Amino acid sequence: xxxxxxxxxxxxxxxxxxxxxxxxxxxxxxxxxxxxxxxxxxxxxxxxxxxxxxxxxxxxxxxxxxxxxxxxxxxxxxxxxxxxxxxxxxxxxxxxxxxxxxxxxxxxxxxxxxxxxxxxxxxxxxxxx
Length: 129
Hints:
Layout: E1 3-7, E2 10-13, E3 18-25, E4 32-39, E5 46-52, E6 58-60, E7 68-73, E8 78-83, E9 92-100, E10 102-104, E11 107-109, E12 123-128
Parallel strand pairs: 2-12
Antiparallel strand pairs: 1-3, 3-8, 4-5, 4-9, 5-6, 7-8, 9-12, 10-11
């Protein structure tokens, strides 16, 4: 079992930036991915970005493309989410978790939050308008 601890959230103005961190303790399987998820108030949790353990494969939700960058520091066993050009709709809790990877050819696929587990406690991001 892996434990994830998220940090880096806070209050930021529209257009601002934040870097979220997800520190993992425990063993992550080599064929797993680590993901960042967003849950807006009153809405279901949705995938924002996932990354392979090697860091060589990534996936982004349409809402994150061009604004967010996911990265994995293997030495620190930490996944980062660099968020820029933040919008009020980015407000909510951000969680990380891991799960088995799915590929179509060389393309990493996201198949939904159901296959992810070992959820962290989350970090709150609030973007003011």
